[in-house]
Amino acid sequence: MDTFGTHLLVEFFGCNRDQLADRHGIEKLLSDSAKNGKATVVAVRSRELVANGLDSIAILKESHLALRTYPDSGYATADLYTCGDCDPYGCLAVIKERLAPQDVDIVAIERGMPGDEPTRVRGHRPSKRILIDCTVANIPPNVFVDQSPGRGVGLFAKKDFERGEVIYDAPISLASSDTQFVLRSEEYETILMADDIGMELSIAALKEFPPELLEKLAAHYGLQDPPLNVLRYRMTNGRQDEVLVTGFDGLVNHSDNANTLSQLSRQDLCFENDTPKMVMSLIAASPIEAGDELFWDYREIPGYVPPANWLS
Question: Would you say 33 and 94 are in contact if contact means Cβ atoms under 8 Å apart?
């Protein structure tokens, strides 16, 4: 489809009740969230509800941000729609930070004209929720997480590595795009969709798999020298689970010029209910010194806030 914008429908549970009843604070929240999403505010309006709540909206040049609050229940809903170069996830990040919810549910809809691809809806009736252990104890000993200048959050080496040396091993699993991943640290939880923290298992991605790994996958499904599209169909459970989710903490490398390489092996392959599970080894592509960033253009994940005690 020809996408014009992204529409987020969000529910916040277990919020700070006093903040939900603060009309001035909610209006400022909407203005600040619009600014963080690089949107232009035209006007902000609110009305008080009978049940002690607020119905507030920020009218944008690029569409709107709406928030309805229920202080007595610690509950709020948001309708965030931005077009063009605006980032609705940037708007959402501010709202999540200020309302401090205990849990969040997100439905993301790509808006636009019909095309060859259907309208994509993520988060509606998620097939499942998967917990990712983001506690400090679960970070591989050879790396640390820190701010990547101008690029969000990055991974850095704790020690020197020679070319070809394994830096760490990370699990890989397949999931549907609407699977919710709960990233749990010592401090709080962040909930993201598989699409936000993974990448599609495409034919191009399969072509990068080691031949011996492809052979073992084909043998498991009883296939002999299958075309990659047939193997992909079986691996993804009829295209239901098309997203490769990698990493120990929900971080994923989108870099085209990293100083590391990823490598899969036949020995690391196992299956759970016919769904393959693998391990990716991150390997130094060149000598790396302690303190070097592993991915040179590490990309920020929309809506993801790392635990404060990760950052040095």
Answer: yes
**Alpha carbon separation from 112 to 7, 59, 82, 118, 163 (Å, rounded):** 10, 20, 12, 10, 46
Give CA–CA dist 293/270, Å, rounded: 31
* Alpha-carbon distances, residue 268 vs 57, 264, 281, 290 (angstroms): 51, 7, 10, 28
- CA–CA separation, 8 and 180 (whole Å): 15
Tally Cβ neighbours within 10 Å of residue 139. Answer: 18
All CATH 3.60.90.10 domain ranges of the chain, comma separated, are 2-122
For the entire predicted model, the pTM comes to: 0.54
144-163 mean pLDDT: 78
Compute the distance between CA of residue 234 and CA of residue 229 in angstroms, rounded to an integer: 9
pLDDT tens-digit readout, 93-149: 899 989 988 888 888 887 766 554 444 555 555 557 787 777 777 788 898 877 766
Helix (H, G, I), strand (E, B) or coil at 267: helix
* Count of helices and strands (H, E) across the chain: 7, 18
Per CATH, the architecture of 129-310 is what? Beta Complex (2.170)
What's the CATH number for 2-122?
Answer: 3.60.90.10
